[in-house]
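pls read this protein.

:::
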Amino acid sequence: MHLIVYSPLLTPRIKYIFNFIFKDILKTEIEFTGNKDYFLQSENAKISYADEPLGDELHFKSSSLLLSNKVEEIGLKTTMFGEYIVPFPVQQSALPFDVFAASFFLISRYEEYLHQKKSDQDFKAKSSHQTKWRILNRPIIDEWALILKNMIRKKYPALQFQDKKFLNQPIINFTLKPDVPLKFFPKTKFIINAVFNKEQKYLSHIFDNLTGLGLNEEKVMAQLDQLLHKTKAVYFINFPEDIKNKLNYSKASKFLKGRAVGLLRPCTHDKDQSVLINGLKKLKKINAGNVNLMSQQLEVLKLPTCYLQLLSAGITSDYSMGYADTLGFRAGTCTPFCWYDLQLEKITPILVKSYCINDSTLQYLSVAEAKKAIEDYIDAVKLVDGDFYSSWQLKSLSENAKFKKWKSVFHDMLKYAGN
């Protein structure tokens, strides 16, 4: 037995969100049809997404969002569902709101497209509907999916769902330091350049090393290897300014070998892809054969501009979906999903993995508050057997006295997550 979904109009949006909920989250087989007779005669588990039911199947009344192919202002109405505010209320339906339209609205970042049309300002978490609806701290789409699963199981107990497993994957980022030349004259030239070339910013690295604040990436990563018993971290690296492209990273090439490595801040310039292209070239040069074409854009993620740049560069895995200044599930889910391009109305190859925790935000909390917040988010993700992604700066995980407490928080997070 599998699940058959009837809709009189099978749009790309309908297929996308139904496949995400039932195949990606709930792990069951799904079939679509617009044929009433075929649907009514089928002995499979049945869902209709239409104005009215066809028979005694589970019926979900459709709203207009998934039937459209435009990005336009919506007169959003809301209702209460349990303890949450939810959009797209409907009548005479299995649920009091259109759960599929609501899920698509969140995961597609529909409101961010509208924001970009009206403003050049960065989209902030405080402006999001999730904040207004008090659901930003929940993987709400996954929770709705579990409700759907229970409803279907009650009516069609023979339908099988495969098991999912909780995944914990830390995301760690840092700026890579270039090798200092060994020979006297090249080394002297390097240091002079570090002092007088403002664009290249090596002076801060030299000062940090002299004062003991410098970061020994290799040492910190070796220590992390001992902590990460069952968990494999993903590393994202940034390169210093190097206008003449003369810097070497042979040391980094050695300690990055065998690690999953991606490019940090690939979308630095909205209209200039040179940073992205050059960064990928450098990354492939120092870590040949193990660049998984991944990226993470911290601070500002502009949609759809950034993802269009990533697509153009061939990047297929992205860890940018989160807020740099706020904890929470920006896309409403803790399940990886393929980015849906609302401009072209199609699914893209970019697999998005959303982080809900980042150390930049945690540092505004006390250690006790940070640990409690992390545990709450892990609990929320474990409840739906989702993927827990947290973003950390490598320096936050070092032995440096300034950051030692955050290394302790990171260690406690791994233990609580079951590392």
Summary: DSSP finds 15 helices and 15 strands in the chain. The two ends are 37 Å apart (CA to CA).
